[in-house]
Give the backbone structure.
Amino acid sequence: MSCYKGIREKQEKVAGRSTLHKLFLVGLCAGALALSCGAEPKLHPLFTDHMVLQRDKSVSVYGAADPGEKVTVEFAGQKKTAIADGSGAWKVDLDPMPANAEPRELIVSSSVKISDVLVGDVWVCSGQSNMQTKLGFYPTLLKQTAEMTNSLIRLFKIKELGIGAPEPSREVVIDPIFARSWQVNCPFYAKEFSAAAMFFAQQLQPGLEVPIGLISASRGGTFAHSWIPFETLKTRPEYAGYLSKANPAWQPSDKNPGAIKAPAYLYNGTIYPLTQFVIKGVIWYQGEADTKNPERYTLQMEDLIGSWRKAWGDDFYFLYVQLTSYGGVSWDRTGEAWAWLREAQSKALKIKKADMAVTLDVGEYQDIHPQNKVPVGQRLALLAEKIEKPAVVAHGPVYESVRFEKNTARVSFKKGTSAGLQALRVAMNTNPKLSPGQDPQARAAAEGQPGGFTICGPDKKFITAEARIDGDSVAVSHPSVAQPVAVRYGWENFSLANLYNNAGLPAAPFRTDDFEQPDFEGRISGVPFDIAQQAAWGSAISIIPEMRQSLNKRVVMDGVECWQSQSADSPTRYMYFKVNDPGYSQAESNRVKLSIAYLDKENFDIRVRYDSNDQNVKTDPAKLGAWKEAGMIKLKNSGKWRIATIEVADAFFRHRCNGGDVRLEVSGDVDFLVQGIYIEKIPFGR
């Protein structure tokens, strides 16, 4: 009934009104009255027909009225009053109520009435594209979409792609298709809602037998820092790179309109407007955008969850999805960047009332938005159901310890997660838009044989291991590893790991070692240097001070005389260096060592390119081989002077690249400082 009412409202709106209907909430904190109240009080836009109020908590009902006006709220036998403050804001708190699926009416001052109000659990559904992506996007889920008819599931959607704001805002922008209202779940609205969230509610509602309300508030391609308050970000030196002008998220573009992905912008415009509405918790699916910097992700999760709970004034539940398998990570030379991010997600389990759904087995090799959203939602729902029913099995095997027995490593799992270990068939598609596992070219692991394990000896070189289930443990070995020192499971971007428990839930990926995280892009980290040792670095090469793309000037920084690159109306900064020694320009190829002395300030990369004789480099035919990549220098914001060394075997220094032989390049609106570049020939045979 309400589904078709909503469709009619949408059609009327598209025909005769703006497609973007903005609604404003009068903040109970600072802010002017955003609604012209007149004689009739107004409810906040989240309070509409078909809504769900949170059970078992004191529920705030709020809105706007004339300053000083007495407002009365009646619901479920309760009658509460409030006086609108000087800005017109009013709020009443209803006493905690049990779940109730009976449609009831909420009345404000006898004149404002909303109907079909239920009491149950309300979940905010947030994150990036794998939470945002709509059920109707997936061609293989048409049958499931048609089955979305449970009227005890109610949907509310913030404008698709979210709202960004430079400051916390109380403005709520509802997705126009949802016709300014909560809507009763039906195929029309379900296909416009998050697929992961729909399967979460579809599993959870019958399991708990209470109404479920979902609030969609997500945007694809976003970093965790986009969802964290600016005041929180400012307290951590680890976040200096995000707040720096070098962070491209600050720069508006077609994929970043209004700099919506900038630090705190989505928190300010999409999350903060919801923080007065009482909820059960949050389901969260995000992390793909942060895979280049997993070392900071656990801290970001702590700050994100903590800041949201602080804003709500409630230690609500926070359930999140661990990244699935994906093979299209072209920038990662190690093949394991996503594995390290998954580990950072696992470490966030130390946060109270937080839990994680493992989805390593439901990805696709080349599709970052895999079709198989059913188990994603179902596993989140098991976590939510376990809150109310502790006996529910909601986790697969979780690593606990390893014991090395001669040439075998025996892996044990935490009690209660490993009952009935089994290896099940796993199949994930190579070609997109096909039913999960049904691709003729699907990558698969067979049932009965545990896969996804690797092992290493003292050399720390991991190889694919042989694994067998032995009771509630797994024995891992390889004939070439006589003295194993570490085991890893599921430690790849795309992994055919297939260990489960008897509940059919997958084991979480893990590693038994504490080895240092590699640099995924093969970037170079320099070492501290003493300027007094300058003579040992080789011969200095000359900078070309003035180029069209940058203005390079000589400055003194921390007692070191250096070159500083500033913008000359270009989004990229450059420094060009020229080798004047004719011994380098006369040879057809030189094997050389380049030492770049730089100030390690802020968090960005310095790209190093050089004039090469490599005929495979695709450039201007008249300059075959010119401008080859030498590497990337990774800055870590230590504030210290460092020196990075790069060896190249095919230098061809004929000044073919804007008059230079070596170029340093930085993207973004950021200055960088270089003391100099030094060159030394490497003798043959060394």
Notes: The radius of gyration is 29 Å. Confidence is low (pLDDT under 50) at residues 10-37. The chain has twelve helices and 40 strands. The longest strand covers residues 112-127.
